[in-house]
Amino acid sequence: FTSTRDPIPVLRMESSLNQQEVEKFLLATTSKVMAKGKEFTTSTLSQVGTQLVELVNTGLPGSCPSADGFKFIVHATVQEQWGQGSLVGAKCEWDNTRDKVVSVTHNTEKVNVCLVVFFVHIEEEEEESDSGDE
Prior knowledge:
Structural class: alpha+beta
């Protein structure tokens, strides 16, 4: 049996991440955690990184609608500034046309925060069901 039905066209909407929207959210989140007047010690700085990652993981989907259709990975680097330099690097294989990375930094006199979010576009697969017509 050969089907004479035309294939059903599949409409695919390309997701586009609004980088400014994400940067604004990340800067606001970082500023809230690193509010002026807060004193940090070496032992409390590790909590800052954990808090930032948790706030971004829970708040980003609701605050940045353009992130819908992306999985995201959050990386926070928090360090004390004692005049040293720092270089943070990361490598990921992805599709440069759809996947994105957004990063922000926040510097105070004693602390440097680098917050990086990697967005990987989720490819939705259409499953064709076989109706069993023969």
